[in-house]
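Hi D.,

Good news: the full-assembly prediction came through. Inputs first.
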Amino acid sequence: MDNPSLFDPSDSEVPQTTKKKAKKAAAEAAPAASKGKGASGARDISVAEFFEKNRHMLGFDSPSKAILMAVKEAVDNSLDACEEASILPTIRVELEQIGDSFFKVCIEDNGPGIPDTQIGKIFGKLLYGSKFHKLSQSRGQQGIGISAAGMYGKLTTGKPVRVISKTRRGRPVEAILSIDSLRNKPEIHSSQEIEWPERKHGTRVEIEMEATYKKGVRSVDMYLKQTAIANPHLTLILVDPSGEEFVYDRNTKEKPAKTIDIKPHPHGVEMGRLITMLKETSCRSISGFLQEEFCRVGPTLAKRIIKEAGNGLTEKSYPTRTAREQAGHLHRAINSTKISSPPTDCIAPIGDDLLLKGLKKELTADFYVTASRPAAVYRGNPFQIEVGIAYGKPGGVGLELTDTGRIQKKTKAEKAVEDLVANADEPARILRFANRVPLLYQQSGCAITKSITQTNWRTYGLNQPRGSLPVAPMAIMVHIASVWVPFTSESKEAIASYDEIITEVKRCLQDAGRKLGIYIRKGKRLKREFDKREYIEKYIPHIGIALQEILDLDDTERDDTVETLEDVLHRSRKF
Amino acid sequence: MDNPSLFDPSDSEVPQTTKKKAKKAAAEAAPAASKGKGASGARDISVAEFFEKNRHMLGFDSPSKAILMAVKEAVDNSLDACEEASILPTIRVELEQIGDSFFKVCIEDNGPGIPDTQIGKIFGKLLYGSKFHKLSQSRGQQGIGISAAGMYGKLTTGKPVRVISKTRRGRPVEAILSIDSLRNKPEIHSSQEIEWPERKHGTRVEIEMEATYKKGVRSVDMYLKQTAIANPHLTLILVDPSGEEFVYDRNTKEKPAKTIDIKPHPHGVEMGRLITMLKETSCRSISGFLQEEFCRVGPTLAKRIIKEAGNGLTEKSYPTRTAREQAGHLHRAINSTKISSPPTDCIAPIGDDLLLKGLKKELTADFYVTASRPAAVYRGNPFQIEVGIAYGKPGGVGLELTDTGRIQKKTKAEKAVEDLVANADEPARILRFANRVPLLYQQSGCAITKSITQTNWRTYGLNQPRGSLPVAPMAIMVHIASVWVPFTSESKEAIASYDEIITEVKRCLQDAGRKLGIYIRKGKRLKREFDKREYIEKYIPHIGIALQEILDLDDTERDDTVETLEDVLHRSRKF
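Then the structure:
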């Protein structure tokens, strides 16, 4: 630990007042415990308490996963902040071993910084954030992640989180804080202005935790590598525990398209939600309400919906006076009316070009293909699917056609061994992304995996055991971009199996699969041709010698003849 | 709908006050929204709001799953309540179709009832309950389930929940309520005494919701069937939407063993938790603290731990004055000291006998085997694994040995087709249970499934593709009983992959597998023998005729000889 004094110097003797306060809070949190008769001891459960006990739901179930989760949550936040502030992100991740199974995880960005009044809540309170109540694409959405990392750190080491942040206009602030899990509130140990000359603006967070650092498919390294693929505008620096520095340079200076918050689409709104919205709107007419609170509804459409609803509803009806019966009719009318799809400027896909660039840069393969779908909707939330496939290991059996029409074995320089493309006798590797964030765990429970196994890869010339992944030297990348990604748990590791999502992923895989099929069939033809030609070529020199004897040629004439023969042979091949 | 007036009659016109209140609450919930500068619009997220948007985390992602989840949460609560009050449970589940895709789900039990002051919070507030803060085995533990079902009902129909409850001493009370998701508080529409002559005590809950009712592997029917297997003391009545009544009678009048709340085991306590406990204890010495707040620590052990910790700590040190440095030493000392395993009377496994009875009653197979393990610990929480296997479909190729030593095909009467035992060419069916609750979804993401695929079933004579489930006409049942089951999400569908749990499940599967292996090998020998004998038997009548001719026997003598020959042949077979 390079700076032990940073950590909670006041904690060496817990003052009595703290104890009393904690006791009081506990009593407040449990008003029923003392009174409740029958339902013995029923009482409130604080969110932080809940997740402290269920920390595996947040992804903190093992030391090797914990380090990844902490890095992931911090990097996600940095990327979101940079995008919102239109900054080309540069993020530095430092992993420092400070004990047998303890690490200090530091993430520093060049983002816009956080005002000091917000630091406590952002890092020391679960379910607090700016992204939950918006409908626009962002990595974070729950307001849990980074506070959870701090909570895990405190749970395993007893030590608070250190945050340094500087906004463009403000002075750098250093805060030492932790989460009070009994009350789900930040506990600020100290907060003061400091010098931070290295940065004009940005945030640095340091968390000490019990952790294990490993390489491999589900490591921090792999997460960062995949993050680089999905975020070609990002420069990432990793300093690993041995002190070695790895740099992933940005591929493009083009920032992702700015996304726009949207209003809910009428078709995705449940009955109960509609009633709540009617209660809470400030609009003074149903017509205004429909146009104001939803996307894609104009005066004409509003009129048509209200007419369809009937039941005493007119355009001028007062929204908050709508009876439940009437709301039911309105709900049915909305769902039976054709309304155009939600706007898609709330979503920023990676884009075919950049996806291809990213794949080529980070994955070595023989063949690359990408595909993307137009935006679709589940439960009123727009989403969009992109697929990229990298096929064939270099140094494998890959064959290619030269400019002169020859077939030859590929001779690309082999890069360092890549884990990302599978071997020929293994199931294809899957790279899953949600809003540009790689998902490394819970692969089998994810809608993306289900979509891949449900796709018939045999059509495209691949092996596929029934109900399994295709077996091929291949990596399949799937990206879902959405204003609200339905993760199966708070750890954001897998996507829930909504039918609409599975359908779209499958369609997109089929688009990419068809292109891959053409390549594979061509490859198989090439292979057959190659084998035949190889036999012939083996005998050409002998033919040359025979011709030399018959026609009495000199050696140069003979070699010329052989060369011409080979050339004719190759060019005569038809595809 | 048989009684529309039950539902929120006051709601037909939303009074203005409600609106203003809601607005005010929204403003209170978002204090930062108006002030926050840089972190634009960051604000608190209510737990109920969070789960309303993420309702798939609670299992409410599709109409067919929703009906199952609602039944499950209500039945779980009923069972827990009956067990706590030492009542033999009788639970009645009624599913009534009230519209195209709408159902009324009613669950009624003979439990102890709920005091009227508690009804609101139990059914109308997430994260409220009596089981979270205890370490003892129960089905519910989160304080989320039944309120979530009500929330989903309100979200899809706009209608509140109806609860009737009667305690032994109180009068029956009917409450109409829903959850105010913006504030995570119950909104009681009405609460009054009513007549309920049918019951001396019990609770009935009625929820209307958008739902689909289907039969099949993941249906309400299957959930109830499996619940009956794991809860042999339960009588369950299902009235399905067609009005048909199915009854699962109890198998035994023996109630599950009463479980006892335990204190945390010292070895499972994280550093941060230890610090919090030190702060909050009312003990006035470290020695007392260790003995009072943990299980399995007596004066001698406490002394040894404190001595090992050193660093200025004595038995009389004041717990709340412990420095973090000292707490660290104490934590290390605890973990390096040998402490006996936690007591297991906090766990009530089903037991081999009842498990076997349950399997035999609900699953038709040729062979049954069970196995169980002693209690083990993960993160300080005791847990225990039980396994049951039902092998071989009746009417399949099963062979058996008769009392006279003959081999014959089994001739059991075939019951109605059972979905629970797989066909011979299909992967084995898995029945997963946690604290006697069947888990029907997310099989692939569950630690139990992982343990089964990681077990080498080929050793026991079964087919098993690499990394897959064994392929056999077989159902594998695994039950984990624990004071705290680590579910992967709030929907409680799969168990998190803690190493300790996977190890124990695998060991228990191996125990059962060995016994199964003996049966399978015997079966294979029987099959070979049977084939040989069949050839011989085919020729015995011909031998009889030949003997008759040679020895000039009459028909009776010939038949006697043939019978004797067959008998000798069968008895001579050796195992």
